[in-house]
Structure formats: C-alpha cells, structure tokens
Amino acid sequence: MDLYEVESKIKELEASYNKEADNLMQELNAYKKKNPILPMYGDDPNVDKMIANKNRIIRSQYTRRENKIHKLWEKFYDDVTDIVTAEYNLPTDVAKLVVQQVRDRDIGRSELASYLDHYAIFAETVLDAVF
User: Fold this and answer.
1) Chain centroid to CA 101
2) What are phi and psi of 37, to 5 degrees?
3) E strand or H helix at 84, and its extent?
4) Phi, psi values for residue 70, rounded to 5°
C-alpha cells in the first residue's frame, strides 16, 4: 500500500490510455475535417431537407466517435478501481466509491493518486472500525 507504487501504476495505465485517446481524437478530428456540417441554403426546401438529413448522419458519426473516447476513460477509471481494490485490500464496491469520490472532486489526473490514497486510507480505517 505504498503511494509511490499506486502512483506509478496509475501513471503507467494513464500513459497507455492517453495514447489510445490521442488516436481516437485524431480519428474524430480527421472525420470532422473530411465531413464538416453543411450550411443550409434556404432557396430550395428539398435541398435543405437533403442537407439536414446529411448533417444528421454526420452529427451521429461525431457522437459515435466522441462516445468511444468517453467509454475509454470510463474503462480507465474501472482499471483504477481494480488497482485501488488490489493495493488497499478494499472490497470492489468500496473501491468504486473511493474512485467516484475522487472523480467528483473534478481534479486533474496528475493529482489522482494522492487523492485516491487519502480516500482509500480513510475507507480502510472506516472498514476496520466497523468490522
């Protein structure tokens, strides 16, 4: 339960996720560049209807790619939960609460390990006192 070990594991995990997230962002930006949202002309309702239909498809592709990025970071926090569970010998549901508590503080990932350590030790103390 060494903070340095936890921090190094999280940083290693984050580095691999950052690489994948960068690739997904590049894919999203390339798609946006290749398929921009089209302006409406207003002269012909049939043309505007076709453009609106095309824009709906384009926006759905933007959303699909953005959701992939969000799911990636959700998986990152699931993996962080696994690290907290293993390193602090906490039950999985308690580790999830610890990670969620830190996420709710809206801190940068650079401070993640120290906050996790603080909350995990607190949770461990509470569990020891209760059980």
Assistant:
1) 15
2) -65, 130
3) helix 45-88
4) -60, -40
